[in-house]
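Justification of computing resources. Each target in the renewal requires a structure prediction run like the one illustrated here; the chain below, 197 residues long, is used simply to show the kind of job we budget for.
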Amino acid sequence: MSGLVGKQAPIFKAQAVINGNQMTEFNLEEQQGKYVLLFFYPLDFTFVCPTELHAFQEKLAEFEERNCQVIGCSVDSAHSHFAWLNTPKTKGGIEGVTYPLVSDIKKQISQAYQVLHADEGVAYRGLFLIDKKGTIRHQVVNDMPLGRSVDEAIRMLDALIFFENNGEVCPANWNKTKKSMKANQEGLKEYFAGATV
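Resulting structure tokens:
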């Protein structure tokens, strides 16, 4: 895995389910002009995965107000996604999830994003933050037992937006209530003179 940060996000077209009930072709290229949070998960009808998909849904409005499209992807078929979306949460389903769930049944997307676990034939928990020009600005890949933090994904999106709008960089543990810094020696000195880390 060489990492994809700083590179153009691999473009794909694939079957997907959107709004929880509509099967359609999804084209990543059509998302240019907005931020994209693309995350991979191993399989439908498993255990950590529904907790993550619901967690992204619970914060979906926060992504949308930042002009960010959330997209989930696994190696399951669109029909499997549809069945899982029509299974109640109390029975391990993801009923209520409305953002697109992409089918990577040929495993080409997870391979292009370097998250395919070849021996298992499923994707690791990869997460990619893509900017409005289609460049990957952040990626993190978890092993299968390790669920992600949706709040951290939002924090990274905020950091990217802040940097693009203000030109200042975001130090360790930065959030919107904390100081940023200029990317030079003077900025570093000013930051350490006044910041509590």
